Amino acid sequence: MKIAIIGGTGKEGFGLALRWAAAREQVLIGSRDEERAAAAAARVRRMAGAEVNIEGKSNEDATAEADLVILSVPFAAQIPTLKSIRDRFKPGAFLVDVTVPLAAAVSDRATRLLGVWHGSAAEQAAAFAPEGIEVLSAFHNLSSESLHDLSSEVDCDVIVCGASKKGKEILKGLIEKIPGARYIDGGPLENSRIVESITALLISLNIRYKAKSVGIRITGLPGS
C-alpha cells in the first residue's frame, strides 16, 4: 500500500511521513513544489535510514499513485488543495483529513477555531472529495514535536472518525506502527468537529505550561 501525504513538507505531515517510513511503509511526500517534496524525502532518509521507501512528488502525482491519501495542510489551503488533486485519486482510495480550522488561517490566534459551514473541516473535505472516495479524519491531536523525535514514543491517542470500516482498519494498523500511539474509533465523520476543537485546547495548554507535545488519552475503555 502506498501512502501519500499531501502537505508532507509541513510539520505534521513530515512527522507522519517520518514515522511510517521508519516503520518500513511505502510513503510519498506531496507538495505544490516537487523540489521541496524531494528535499523532505531526503531529510527522512537522513533521519530514518537510507533504506527507507520514500519519494517526494507533486501533490497531483503523489495522489495518483496512492491507496491512502493523507491531507495535512493549513485550513486556508484545504479546499484549493482538494480541488487541485480531486481528479487524480485512484478508484477505491481513501482520503484522511487532518485539517483543523484554526483562526490562525485569518491571522487570529491558533487557540481559537473558525466556524465551518459544513460543521467541521473533515465534513468540508468530504463535500469536495471526488465521488466514491471515502473520507475519514484522524491525527488532529498528535503533536508534530513527538512525531519528529524517533528516539521517543508519542504519548497520545488518535481518534479516527468516519463511516468506512475498511478505512478504519487500515488506519488502526498504521497508528499502531507509531510507538506510543493508540487507535480510538471516534464514530461518524460528524464527530470530527469535536476532535478538531480539542487541537485548539492542546495548543493553549502547550502555551500555558510552556510545553511542546501535550496530547490526550481516553481512559476507561475495555481492554485499555
Please give a structural write-up.
This protein has 224 residues and is of the alpha/beta class. Helix 2 links the parallel strand 2 (26-31) and strand 3. The chain has helices at 11-22, 34-48, 59-65, 75-85, 121-128, 144-148, 165-175, 192-208, and strands spanning 2-6, 26-31, 54-58, 68-71, 94-97, 134-137, 156-162, 181-185. It is globular and about 35 Å long. The relative contact order is 0.14. 38% of the residues lie in helices and 18% in strands. The model has no long low-confidence stretch (mean pLDDT 95). Helix 1 crosses helix 2 (34-48) and helix 4 (75-85) runs parallel beside helix 5. It has one domain (2-208): 3-Layer(aba) Sandwich (Rossmann fold). It is built from eight helices and eight strands; from the N terminus they run E-H-E-H-E-H-E-H-E-H-E-H-E-H-E-H. The two termini are 29 Å apart.
| Alpha-beta classification | alpha/beta
- In helices, the fraction of residues equals 25-40%
First and last CA, distance? 29 Å
The CATH class label is Alpha Beta
Q: Assign the CATH topology.
A: Rossmann fold
List low-confidence stretches: none
What key attributes describe this structure?
224 residues; alpha/beta; Rossmann fold; 8-stranded mixed β-sheet; 38% helix; 18% strand
SSE topology sketch:
Layout: E1 2-6, H1 11-22, E2 26-31, H2 34-48, E3 54-58, H3 59-65, E4 68-71, H4 75-85, E5 94-97, H5 121-128, E6 134-137, H6 144-148, E7 156-162, H7 165-175, E8 181-185, H8 192-208
Parallel strand pairs: 1-2, 1-4, 2-3, 4-5, 5-6, 7-8
Antiparallel strand pairs: 6-7
Helix pairs in contact: 1-2, 4-5
